[in-house]
């Protein structure tokens, strides 16, 4: 059963507005081709990825009786739908600069369709739980080390901060659904090991393809800068190691680490002003539903 003693923040689907016209070149992340291609490739995975996250939770939605968790599921679906919507827009901007996000998105959509032919509903949900943990701890790193975003165009910085805040807000939804209706931690841990290998290899594959299609050859300076960004003492992956390993503990729950201060800081910042005013919850969920009908196919 999900933890009931943790005071989790409210989950709310927000409708945001960003202007990505300030993205002027392919190496938008501080001039580094490798870091830029990594996040362009990752962005390309979000539309099909978020769609699978939504669908895997919806498979169990009608069996949830807890009214609070039912409400969280609704807002989770709204948030993920808006993430897909905004990443489709940013993917168009990346494509204009030479990163072929559409081809990456298509490859992942096909991969998910093939996987879903053989995976049980419980395994699909387990994979979503695992991807949600990975995206949550990545979001935690970004929000706690916002200087890594300083070299980004302002629109991208705004998008990253909003997306990471919402990943933190809903980080336990899929987990709590799984714990309530499945509850097999060994099954979940096995999937985390598989998902980690799958995610690492797939992202490297998409990134290499992105460089081949763009005819972009990283320089030695790109390699050194990317190594420092990901694996240095203050690197993203280096600092995700312990939060990642915590997942394998038998008593793990996503909200054992309270990140509500990171959410509150974003709400008090200028970046929260990107939310479209007077947007109703109904409108936000309607946009999400329309995007999913349009073929948003999971990362997380």
Strands, helices and their partners?
Blueprint: H1 33-61, H2 67-96, H3 101-116, H4 121-144, H5 154-169, H6 173-181, H7 185-214, H8 220-231, H9 236-246, H10 260-267, H11 281-293
Helix pairs in contact: 1-2, 1-3, 1-4, 1-7, 2-5, 2-6, 2-11, 4-5, 4-6, 4-7, 4-9, 5-10
General description of the model:
With 300 residues, the chain is an all-alpha fold. It has helices at 33-61, 67-96, 101-116, 121-144, 154-169, 173-181, 185-214, 220-231, 236-246, 260-267, 281-293.
Which stretches of 5+ consecutive residues score pLDDT under 50?
A: 293-300
What is the count of structural domains? 1
Into which percent range does the helicity of residues fall? 55-70%
Q: Main sheet?
A: none
Task: Provide a concise account of the structure shown.
The chain has 300 residues and is an all-alpha fold.
Summary keywords:
300 residues, 11 helices, globular
